[in-house]
Design goal:
Elements lengths: L6 H17 L14 E3 L9 E6 L3 H17 L4 E8 L2 H15 L10 E3 L3 H7 L4 E4 L6 H10 L3 E4 L7 H16 L4 E3 L7 H11 L6 E10 L13 H7 L11 H4 L2 H11 L5 E7 L21 E7 L5 E8 L6 E8 L2 E4 L4 E3 L5 E4 L7 H14 L2 E3 L2 H20 L3 E2 H5 L40
């Protein structure tokens, strides 16, 4: 049984409830079960061609474009065409064109005058005759691009995370309110909400399959990601953008870029967001010349984080993410209740004796593709799903965790979300010759957070 709330806990809960209510942050009805809250539109696309633009032509952007175009064969009720593309780098744009053409050449109509290169290339896509835009640049640019898409009246599919700091999250939430008023569809790349295995598992847990949930555990522990070596004649801004994963103003650290998926699953399960967080983290291997062969390309981010999140009902989420080769690896979510346990990612439920009592079985896991099928099927029917709020608030959960690990402090959700610290002003960036918001010192070291010294806000 949960312990009675203290006065402080009750006050925090009431404050949070009012905040969520007045900000329209929680999805209604079936959203927590993976079926999105939907507003009817006067216009359904029917068999009309849905014209798509792509902003951000890296691997994820190219993959998302292919998955969007795959919906034609699945739905068999009209065309989807890619008609405009933009990227900061011309080579990335051309590689993306080749990648998409390799699978869907007949669904490509992107002539030279609809290929936009540069930091302001997104504007050309927004001004093109498109119905929907895919936003897949490094997440530091997401609030700017999402806001521009909504102002231009475009439906949006945007990759996660949707921001890297609290001001960016608030900017996305504000733009999403405008998207709702314009009846625009907004999808976010938190694809587990579209996987049948996850949907059924979360539904069973919310229906009490393991009793009252007291504790959850989540992991994104893997060896790490790519590094792109510094090249001759590269500007500092180009170097950072090509290595965007290692700079907080672009990525938000891997607790945001990857671990957000696991954190989002527990938010979905709890139908809410944590109210407090404390944690620890650092750079044991990353940047250590004795362990890291790429020590010269170490950027800013930590290589490990641990966070204890507390929800309004007093339950805990223990969160681990790590980028260390050779260490234990796991990408998973788990729940512990009064009547059993659940391997959420494995879609398996166990009783108190550890006996398996339910499992989903095979299939129902291709969320990257299913989220596009669901989006385009809804558009055809005249429905306008909106995932913007929970996408922004799960992003904030990951930022919340980073604030706790970087500072070493115990902090509240309200304090974190109210933070005015902005990691960069990307609106003012015009070219790759501009100075980035962080720079290396004479030894090539970038600014790094120091727990116990760095402010959480």
């Amino acid at each position: 049984m949960s312990k009675p709330k203290t006065d402080r806990q009750a006050a925090t809960t009431d404050s949070r409830r009012n905040f969520i209510k007045t900000s329209s942050m929680l999805l209604a009805g079936g959203a927590a079960l993976g079926t999105l809250g939907i507003a009817r539109s006067a216009h359904a696309f029917g068999s009309d061609t849905i014209r798509i633009g792509l902003v951000g032509c890296g691997g994820r952007g190219t993959g998302a474009a292919v998955q969007a175009l795959n919906s034609v064969a699945k739905l068999q009720n009209g065309d989807v065409k890619l008609v405009a593309m933009a990227d900061a780098f011309g080579d990335r744009l051309q590689a993306s064109i080749r990648g998409v053409e390799g699978q869907h050449k007949n669904l490509m109509d992107v002539p030279k005058d609809r290929q936009f290169v540069g930091l302001d290339g997104y504007k050309g896509v927004m001004e093109s005759d498109i119905d929907l835009v895919i936003l897949a640049t490094p997440p530091g640019f997401r609030p700017l691009h999402f806001e521009a898409a909504v102002k231009a009246g475009k439906h949006v599919f945007m990759e996660k995370p949707v921001a890297v700091d609290a001001p960016g999250v608030r900017r996305v939430l504000a733009a999403n309110e405008e998207a709702k008023s314009k009846n625009l569809a907004v999808a976010v790349g938190l694809q587990r909400h579209h996987e049948k295995a996850y949907i059924e598992t979360i539904t069973r847990l919310q229906d009490g399959a393991i009793g009252e949930i007291l504790l959850t555990r989540v992991y994104w522990n893997n060896p790490g990601v790519w590094v792109r070596k510094r090249e001759e004649k590269q500007t500092e801004l180009e170097y950072q953008m090509r290595n965007w994963y290692y700079f907080n103003w672009l990525c938000g650290d891997h607790i945001c870029e990857q671990h957000i998926h696991n954190l989002d699953v527990i938010n979905w399960l709890k139908n809410g967001y944590p109210v407090r967080a404390n944690g620890m983290g650092g750079r044991q291997v990353r940047g250590n010349p004795l362990a890291d062969v790429d020590a010269a390309d170490r950027g800013q981010i930590f290589d490990h984080h641990f966070v204890e999140f507390t929800y309004a009902d007093g339950s805990k989420m223990y969160s681990q993410c790590r980028h260390i080769p050779g260490a234990w690896q796991s990408v998973s979510e788990h729940a512990h209740g009064t009547a059993g346990t659940c391997d959420i990612s494995g879609a398996k439920i166990y009783d108190t004796k550890g006996e398996l009592v339910w499992q989903h079985g095979r299939g129902g896991r291709d969320g990257h593709q299913e989220e596009h099928y669901d989006l385009f099927a809804a558009l055809r029917r005249g429905e306008r799903p909106n995932e913007g709020d929970f996408g922004a608030l799960s992003t904030m959960t990951s930022i919340f965790g980073r604030m706790a690990t970087y500072s070493g402090q115990d902090i509240s959700w309200d304090e974190a979300l109210a933070s005015e610290t902005s990691l960069a002003n990307v609106d003012d960036m015009r070219s790759l010759a501009d100075k980035p918001p962080v720079a290396p010192d004479e030894q090539g070291n970038y600014p790094i957070a120091v727990p116990g010294v760095s402010s959480p806000f």
